[in-house]
Amino acid sequence: QVQLVESGGGLVQAGGSLRLSCEASGRTFDSYVMAWFRQAPGKERVFVASIASGGGRTYYADSVKGRFTISRDNAKNTGYLQMSSLKPDDTAVYYCAAALTYRGPIFGLYPYWGQGTQVTVSS
Prior knowledge:
Blueprint: E1 2-7, E2 10-13, E3 18-26, E4 33-39, E5 46-51, E6 58-60, E7 68-73, E8 78-83, E9 92-99, E10 112-113, E11 117-122
Parallel strand pairs: 2-11
Antiparallel strand pairs: 1-3, 3-8, 4-5, 4-9, 5-6, 7-8, 9-10, 9-11
């Protein structure tokens, strides 16, 4: 089992940047695919990005391609989501998730979740 804790959220103006972190503890982090999801008020949780256990393969939602970058440092048991050119539509609670195999964009297939971190983008 793995425990996940997100950090780095906050309030930022449109066009700004933030970096989210997801620190893992428990079993070996480098065995897990890691993903980021987000949930805006009144909306369902949606896929943002994912990265393979070794960091070699990444996937992004179309809405964030070219603006967000997912990465990981397995030596530090930490994953990251670098967000740039932020828009008000990016406002949401951002969640880190993990699974032992690639689960695609379906949040229900990820067994491990953090508590979420709020990102608010003002116009």
